[in-house]
Write a structure and sequence with these properties.
globular; mainly beta; 1 helix
Length: 73
């Protein structure tokens, strides 16, 4: 990929995925139908605080892990 490609390649929960250059973690979560849910996001083995989701732009080669919380007892 070059700097002019409209997409970047990431891995989402271990699976290859292409997203638009400039997309953020918040936009990815929205596209996955996960916006507003209780979850944790890790980017390249570093937890990304929810306050940073809207500004964290996805980069080529990012490894993203999304874990949702399920209540129970």
């Amino acid at each position: 990929m070059t700097g002019t490609d409209p997409t970047v390649a990431i891995r989402l929960n271990g699976e290859a995925r292409f997203v638009s250059r400039g997309d953020t973690i918040a936009l990815l979560l929205e596209e996955l139908g996960l916006a507003g849910m209780r979850l944790a996001v890790e980017r390249n083995q570093r937890v990304v605080p929810q306050a940073e989701h809207a500004s964290a732009r996805l980069q080529d080669g990012d490894e993203i892990e999304v874990v949702t919380f399920v209540g129970g007892g």
